[in-house]
UniProtKB/TrEMBL annotation:
Gene3D superfamilies: P-loop containing nucleotide triphosphate hydrolases (3.40.50.300). Coiled coil: none annotated. GO terms for molecular function: ATP binding. It comes from the Bacteria. The lineage of its organism: Bacteria, Pseudomonadati, Pseudomonadota, Gammaproteobacteria, Natronospirales. This is ABC transporter ATP-binding protein. Pfam families: ABC_tran (PF00005). InterPro entries: AAA+_ATPase (IPR003593), ABC_transporter-like_ATP-bd (IPR003439), ABC_transporter-like_CS (IPR017871), ABC_transporter_ATP-binding (IPR050763), P-loop_NTPase (IPR027417). Keywords: ATP-binding, Nucleotide-binding, Transport. Residues 14-243 form the ABC transporter domain. SMART domains: AAA.
Length: 317
């Protein structure tokens, strides 16, 4: 972590302004992207396949040429200061790409050397231990499981001690245990001052790890917000009432409310917007009492991030 990374006036870890990218085929991959990622945060870029997630991070990491716009990493332009910006970044791509016949230790050490850094066996050992790879350090990569190979990809990305780590669909196709291990590693790295940017279409991954979430669809950044603020702003709550006696139909005065009666008549479901000052729950319960409709139990359900995400993408089509 650099000395100025905690200062209020320090530049953003990543700053993207008016970024556009159209491929030779005519495909518009990105359109008018403006984004700032703060130092030391975990930022999740959430979107379906083909939304533009990989194109965006590939441009920031210097793997794909931008069309129009400007991208800065810790205040450095990715074109004018390519070597500097690339040295600040670690990237774990979606695809596994390693030298199958090399050992784990050697391939991670070699990755460090690619950035012109001196050999540091202590750092490499720590990275391998953090990723549960130390016991496999002398194994050829071709002999590892798919999950272990993905750990090696992360180790390679961390070999040169980057300040910013990009994880492109980091847990696609891995088992639950490895996913949890990787989540724990990400939190440890953030604790060391590393900025983490991950792309994912796993809602639980963003919900578990991110401080802020950006939603991207069809090459456009739909929304960026704090995770909790996003859920509070866009989430709906559901009140489910289990009735003492079944109803065949709702009383006329309740027809105008956002109420659903289950097919068997034993449950009432009331939807309300958390953004409104008055939810209407108290009024509903009072009205039910006036009609002599008693309930034996009730519980509430808040919209998940997945439900919010689906509604956002659908609204922008």
């Amino acid at each position: 972590m650099t000395e100025d990374s905690g200062r209020a006036d320090a530049p953003a870890a990543v700053s993207v302004h008016a970024l556009n990218k159209t491929y030779a085929s005519g495909l518009v991959a990105l359109s008018d992207i403006d984004l700032e990622i703060r130092r030391g945060e975990i930022f999740a870029l959430l979107g379906p396949n083909g939304a533009g997630k990989t194109t965006l991070i590939s441009i920031i990491c210097g793997l794909v040429n931008p069309g129009e716009g400007q991208v800065r990493v810790n205040g450095h332009d990715i074109i004018a200061d390519y070597r500097k910006t690339r040295s600040l970044i670690g990237l774990v791509p979606q695809e596994l790409a390693t030298d199958s016949f090399e050992t784990v230790h050697n391939t991670v050490s070699f990755s460090r050397g690619l950035f012109g850094l001196p050999r540091n066996d202590v750092h490499v050992e720590q990275v391998l231990r953090d990723l549960s790879l130390w016991e496999k350090r002398n194994e050829q990569i071709k002999n590892l499981s798919g999950g272990m190979k993905r750990r090696v990809m992360i180790a390679k990305a961390l070999a040169h001690e980057p300040e910013i780590l990009f994880l492109d669909e980091p847990t696609a196709g891995v088992d639950v245990e490895l996913r949890r291990d990787m989540w724990a590693l990400v939190h440890r790295l953030r604790g060391q001052g590393v900025t983490i940017i991950l792309t994912t279409h796993y809602i639980e991954e963003a919900e578990e790890m991110a401080d802020r979430i950006g939603v991207i669809g069809q090459g456009r950044l739909i929304l960026v917000d704090e995770k909790q603020a996003l859920m509070k702003k866009l989430g709906r709550k559901e009140l489910r009432l289990h009735l003492r006696e079944p109803l065949t139909t709702l009383p006329d005065s309740l027809q105008a409310r956002d109420l659903e009666l289950s097919e068997d008549g034993w449950q009432l479901v009331f939807h309300y917007d958390m953004r409104k000052e008055h939810s209407g729950v108290a009024e509903l319960l009072s009205e039910l009492e006036d009609h002599g409709i008693a309930f034996s139990d009730l519980h509430t359900h808040q919209s998940s991030l997945e439900e919010i995400f689906v509604s956002l993408v659908k609204d922008k089509r």
